[in-house]
Sequence to fold (650 residues):
Amino acid sequence: FVFQVYCLSSATNSELLSRHKRVWIIDSFEIEEGHPGPFPYELGKVSVDREYRIYFELHGQGVDEEPMGVISIDEHSGMLNVHKAVDYEKWHTLELRFEARKIDTSIDTRLGIQISIKDINDNPPRFERDLYEINVPQESTQGSNLLKVHATDIDKSETLNSTFHYEIKSVSPNVRDTELLIDESGYISFKGCLNYEVAEKFTVVVEAKDHGEVVKLSSSTTVVIHVGNGNNHLPVISGQTGTGKVKELVTGVSPLRLHVTDKDTPHTSGWRARYTIHGDEGENFNILTDSETNDGILTVVEPLNFKNGAQRELLISVENEALYYSCEVKERTPSGLWKVDTIKGHDPSGETVVQFHQRENITIVVDTNDPPEFNVTLKEVTVMENVPVGTWVDKVTAVDPDSSYSKEFVYKVGNDPAGWVMVDPLTGNITMIKTPDRESPYVVNGTYTILVYAVDKGIPPMTGTATLHIHVWDQNDNVPQLTVDSLDVCVSDAPTTINFEAFDPDEAPYGGPFTFELLGNVEGKWKLNPDYGYAAGLVKEPGVYPGQHMIHLKISDMQGAFHVYNLSVTACGCTVTPNCQIRQNSEIKLGPYALCIIISSLLLLLFLLLMALSISTKREFITIEPEDCSVGILLQSNTEAPGDNCEVTV
Ligand SMILES: *[C@@H]1O[C@H](CO)[C@@H](O)[C@H](O)[C@H]1NC(C)=O
Ligand SMILES: *[C@@H]1O[C@H](CO)[C@@H](O)[C@H](O)[C@H]1NC(C)=O
Ligand SMILES: *[C@@H]1O[C@H](CO)[C@@H](O)[C@H](O)[C@H]1NC(C)=O
Ligand SMILES: *[C@@H]1O[C@H](CO)[C@@H](O)[C@H](O)[C@H]1NC(C)=O
Ligand SMILES: *[C@@H]1O[C@H](CO)[C@@H](O)[C@H](O)[C@H]1NC(C)=O
Ligand SMILES: *[C@@H]1O[C@H](CO)[C@@H](O)[C@H](O)[C@H]1NC(C)=O
Fold:
């Protein structure tokens, strides 16, 4: 406690002033702040050298001004007493007024007193904050300032009691490759490498400690350093799935998926893969990343053409969204920063990027379009003859082996000679659009054959074929038919038989053998022999005269289905012409000149006939009965066809 006395308002005469200077000797005292007591204690004595009695009075800070009641003065002895402790950090000095009075209370001397309070080291340096937190990227370089802590000590400045330093007391976790430092200004930095995978965060306790000679005071704060997650691992191509095949002229399909593994934290930019295609001159492909699996999905965006090559060679590289970073401590030097090797991924557009890429050669095969295939290529179905239009026949099924063309094909009728069916383009359902007739010329052996196509939408379209055998179930929808519509018969006295045939397009049991029957009154004129079978014989009896005859012939099949034919039979003399038909035709067609020749010829023939008759009569008389010309002179035929007549021997 330094006790200083200044002349503030001395006596008006200069003599007194000079005396004061001589009398007042400045003493040095030391009084510490925060004195432990006991109180009061004597600080020192103010002695004013006078022959007469004087009284002392004290006013000002520490007495009747804040901080009150610290100091008092003994009015007789001038002894200063301290009654309580004073805090330096509140009051560096106390200013007081000291008065000495005579007996008559007039002021003898009025002086000012300034009491300085001496600091002790009672305050530690204090940090601005109890907790500092910061995020730093793991790519931060060693030695760079990460953050600054700040503390202040309110003890008397520029003394050791307020001078302090920072110190790292603890780091958790304690990592071999990272050492944290703090400099005298409070900047925190590190040596070595930061690695998120080794330490996501560091908790650092920093202490500030002053340099007090008697006591050293300190306080601490906590610094939390969060290390950013980065790309510590390259994506590695682990395989591929997919056919690797693309149909030509198809887009939107994905022939291939690339799989990668990446040891970085999933769904961070250090994990997410980014794929690049190299060597895709036609820009036919695109590759996207599956955000869930990180797979690379190769997709065809421009159609491929087989003409331009059967396959495409592509190189696909993969990298992460975040640049790759690695840091390795090579040597822990005793002073300064350590020796470390760091690798940072380069700009992806740069050349040097290649070494950070995983690359994979892939081959995409361009496939031509395959036709749809029927699962059954030959089908046999049976259809009743004469079923109505719209009857369902069958259903065909095809699949397209080109998955990309799946369902992209239609069914069509390929070959359907009689135009019987139609096929549903989408379902393959086949229905009749005509009434089937087993007797159609297109039905062979009761089977009608059609082709069904499945045509896809490729360019050019490809076609699959199935054959359908439609077996037409017979019905008795036909009556027996005659092979001739007229007959010739020779007029003679003896009975003559002409054979004729019938047929039925229906198969057994709807066809022959047939039953023949003559209708009407034919007694003595015509009869049938035989009248059952595929052929019948018409027997002319003597009551028939030359000329046109109409007979009503009923022919029935096995099931009794029948038809009555009006059969025209020409009876004529067979001596002149072998065939009635020819004679009739000749008569009709020849002109008058020819007719004249014919008439004269006939006259000649008649003459010859008469001659022949006279000859034969003679012979006949000897050997043969005149009725039976067929036995001796005329040849008899049992297998008559039109014009098969008796011959004349000349
Ligand atoms: C500092 O404080 C101590 C007590 O803690 C005291 O003894 C010393 O005198 C002070 N030093 C200064 C320069 O004020
Ligand atoms: C990819 O193919 C090229 C050329 O054929 C070859 O030089 C390269 O080594 C291949 N790369 C891989 C990763 O197979
Ligand atoms: C053909 O495919 C159809 C429809 O899928 C099916 O009903 C039928 O049984 C298949 N036929 C054969 C021989 O696989
Ligand atoms: C096929 O046609 C029949 C008859 O018209 C019908 O009942 C059936 O449902 C059709 N089937 C399909 C698959 O369309
Ligand atoms: C019709 O069927 C018969 C016997 O079943 C056979 O001999 C003949 O060759 C077949 N004809 C045709 C054109 O298939
Ligand atoms: C057959 O003759 C009968 C009776 O003369 C007649 O009613 C019928 O119409 C004729 N039929 C044919 C097909 O000419």
User: Anything to note?
Assistant: Confidence is low (pLDDT under 50) at residues 1-26, 347-355, 586-591, 618-650. The radius of gyration is 70 Å. Residues 373-473 form a domain with the Immunoglobulin-like fold (CATH 2.60.40.60).
